[in-house]
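Input/output pair, single chain:
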Amino acid sequence: MTEPRMDTDLIIAGGGLAGATLALALARVVPELRVTVVESFPLSPDALPDDYQPSYDARSTALAWGSRLIFEELGLWAALSEHATPIRNIHVSDRGRFGATRLDAADHGQPALGYVADNRWMGLCLMRSLLETPVSWQAPAEVVGMTPIVGGVKVSIRKEGEEQTLTGQCLVVADGGRSGLREQLGFVTRTEDYGQNALIANVSTSDSHGYTAFERFTDSGPMALLPHGSPVRAENQSALVWTLTDSALEHILSLSDDEKCRQLQERFGWRLGRFTRIGQCNHYPLKLVTVDEAVRPGVALVGNAAHALHPVAGQGFNLALRGLVTLVEQFRKAVDAGVSIGDLSVLGEYQRLHRQDWQQTVQFSDSLIRVFGQSLPPLAAARDAGLVGLDLVPGAKRWFARKAMGTGGRKPVISAAESLQESEHHDR
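Output:
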């Protein structure tokens, strides 16, 4: 019996950074697939600005060196780099103690360890590139349900107050996990509440950042300051991620901007001189969210829908990006073999290949929180010794640098012109 022809091949729930990147990668690597993106925000080519004017309060994402390599393969890095501030040095320290370690891109033969790019700029670059592909969009709309059918899935979509359906071989959930679609589809999550919040803002300092990212661990939680602003001139603006308890967050938010800067000065110190300005403050609770089984026949979770990490090490989007590339590789192989992209053998292989990466990345970021979240003197002394040792032992420092640069795992291949040979995930 001939299976009915599907409306599309792949349905992506969510057109944010993860969903849009997946759609672009598929258009580049598996152009035979018909891809439909369902996004809750209205999208229109006419709404895309001709030029980009950076905002002081723009939210940003840390991109590891490995992520740059992926975007280069997608043909997107030339555009992204126009407003991507390089991270040439990383300074890790423990407030009030002597332990510290430093990473320098030059020691690894690279121009940068990573980059900081505004989310809006990344989204704009993705949308401009996607306009040149045959990817279809349903926006504004949202996926509200899914039913397995022979050969694929039937997805329910709510658009303009009415429900309609789309059939396809596979549904990829890339909506970040906040819509409730993941839970509605029966995926079981494990959540660990850190009892902390991340306060996000851009700040200005009297001294230039010198393209240095600072990771500062304090007795009340870690904070990070990432170089932000011009990609060609070291300026005085940094992107702040400040970890605070509920009560501390409430207190900080009640202060004037000048008082916020004074509090930040007291916690961070004077490595960047005086804090002179703090922009709009956003915040969200910090939780480690993982899904043990992120696939089932016809459905796969990607990005934050599959795993949400503490932002302390800037690993979240970079881990998601590597997962997207792994999924694209498996879709390419499936199409070449004449297998449905929603087949469990295809999605299960994606999960197997990506699992070790996310397990190691979760362990890396989570251990930083647990080790540096302890204020007992013996543990604090051990941390100091560890940071000093990390700074002095080349092998340990290279391992730490590979984690920070996102180059410690299996190398993804996304170019359609290259052979898709499977390699085992390992640290070299």
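The longest helix spans residues 344-372. The two ends are 49 Å apart (CA to CA).
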